[in-house]
Amino acid sequence: MIKAKKTKLLALALAAVCAFGMFALAGCSGGSSDSGSADSSSSESTTEGPSGAISVISREDGSGTRGAFTELFGVVDDNDVDLTTTSAVITNSTAVMMTTVAGDPNAIGYISLGSMDDSVKGVEIDGVAPSAEGVKDGSYKVSRPFNVVTGAEVSDLAQDFLNYIMSSDGQAIIEEEGYVSVSENGAYEPSSDSLSGTVSVAGSSSVTPVMEALADAYMAVNPDVTIEVNQSDSSTGVQNAIEGVCDLGMASRELKDSETSQGVSATVIAQDGIAIIVNNDNPISALTSDQVKEIFLGNVTDWSELA
Hints:
CATH superfamily of the largest domain: Periplasmic binding protein-like II
Radius of gyration: 29 Å
Organism: Slackia equolifaciens
Number of domains: 2
Order of helices and strands: HEHEHEEEHEHHEHEHEHEEH
Protein name: Phosphate ABC transporter substrate-binding protein
Number of strands: 11
CATH topology of the largest domain: D-Maltodextrin-Binding Protein, domain 2
Helix content: 40-55%
Number of helices: 10
CATH architecture of the largest domain: 3-Layer(aba) Sandwich
Distance between the termini: 76 Å
Shape: elongated
Strand content: 15-25%
Keywords: Signal
Largest sheet: 9 strands, mixed
CATH class of the largest domain: Alpha Beta
Pfam families: PBP_like_2
């Protein structure tokens, strides 16, 4: 009986020693593996470029940002026909574009420079970082105008709001919002002591944020006036101005001859850059104009091709 007890105790002791040894080995092995994995991951992110199929994100037909982008980067043929790859994912606003790129590590897109935030990363183009200063001094070439579109007849109230936008007061707001001012007019002076009524503004989603800021500031000075800002796209904004559906259209591109021939004209209220954006986890921080062009034409389809 005593011998059996001793044998059982010895077996338990040996089992405990074996278990401890296996635990120690596992711990050492696991620590080494984790460390190696971290080192490997760190090495890949610092010494290798991105890889994987590029997710091209573009804007919808009618978008002024898309029109300006394709023209500036040459993603058009000799007849100005848009050649954006058919595999591109189409978004219908600046906000949706940013959300889409922020949610896809392999995505690339483009937005109004003034709309940039830290949810996405703006890359250098031809060695120049996207910035309002770069647009202003001409070093950042990817820029376009923000236009207010008016018909042959403009109401006194709509004209007064436009006068405010072009005044030093309005242009200061444009600068505060991250865009480049274009007018050197003096301070705003109301055209009447008793302004009242409604002005409807419609069009570009890129122009909308700064237009809303301008509208708020104008209504603070003229509390009996309502400025209604309706977001769509540049082509819709121009067409609405042509048809008289709105008082002022918004377009983030130059007007076409086919549009001006219908009696509308454009007033440039600001200059804006177009930022080429990628996911924050993408190590790419700079591209050339040609690389961007080839990506959106569909000729470069994998990030590894840019290494």
